[in-house]
Amino acid sequence: MTILLAVVSVCTTSAYGQVDDCGGLLPITSRPAAQDGGAEESERITRSADVLDAIMAADDSAIPDAILERAQGIAVFPGTTRAGFGFGGMRGRGVLSARSGDSWSAPAFLTLTGGSFGLQIGVQRSDIILVIMVPEGLDNLVSNQFSIGVDAGLAAGPVGRNAAAATDLQLSAQILSYSRARGVFAGITINGSTIRQDVDANERFYGSRLETRPLVFENAGSSREPVGLWRQTLARHAN
Question: Residue 214 — φ and ψ, nearest 5°?
């Protein structure tokens, strides 16, 4: 691999943006190859697996087995920020995998923004899980920009590992949504939110500028860790 060197002058600035001092010259390298990076994305995958494990550990508040057995895809957004004064919105980064025979695809990276949660003040972090129940919902979700409640029907999902009852709305929904905040896990509606492909994150992690569709439908991603951990977690809970 060719390494490009450059020389830069290192300066310090005051709190008011004025240049105070310029020091010596330092060599810098070009941006590292994408496959050598992706630390933030690796952490995102690991945290998503941890969220799913934690939620499924408590029988009375887990996603029902019957729901996960039918799931066509699962997206997890760990540590999503919900903030606002009055009516608030949210921002999060997560991963999506699709069922592929008896296993699961490599994860594709997504962003989640917008959405109203009603009257709130301050900032709160929560883990959000989307369970995609039908192929049409998954196909819509892998588009470049997906609006929940517009491009696919969504409902707050039932909880309890052995829960048998589901409302008509839940049965007809393409996507079921869940949220865990302050240790409490429940179904939640996030209509009005927008999910977008995070192609930059895909490139940093996989080393290629892959879109969501080839990752989840064509297994275009590599098997670098922690992809194996994530896929094993999905198989353990949803197969």
Answer: -65, -25
Written as six digits, the tokens of 160 are 């309890």
Cα 40 to Cα 203: distance, rounded to the nearest angstrom: 12
Interacting residues of 135 by C-beta distance below 8 A, sequence separation 6+: 72
Q: What pLDDT is recorded for position 31?
A: 33
Evaluated on CA atoms 206, 208, 214, 220, the torsion sign reads: negative
DSSP H stretches of helix in the chain: 39-56, 65-70, 135-141, 168-172, 199-206, 212-217, 227-238
Antiparallel, parallel or unpaired: β 119-132 and 108-114: unpaired
Beta bridge pairs of residue 192: none
- Which segments of the chain have a pLDDT < 70? 1-36, 83-88, 115-123, 148-152, 163-171, 182-189, 191
**Coarse DSSP helix, strand, coil percentages of the chain, rounded to the nearest 5 percent:** 30, 40, 30
Record the tokens describing residue 52, joined without a space.
């799913």
User: pLDDT per residue over 198-219, tens digit each?
Assistant: 999 999 999 999 999 999 998 8
Residue among 206, 110, 102, 195 nearest 149 (CA): 195
Cα angle value 214/220/223 (rounded, 5°): 145
User: What is d(CA 95, CA 73) in angstroms, rounded to the nearest whole number?
Assistant: 11
Q: Which helix (H) or strand (E) holds 196?
A: strand 193-197
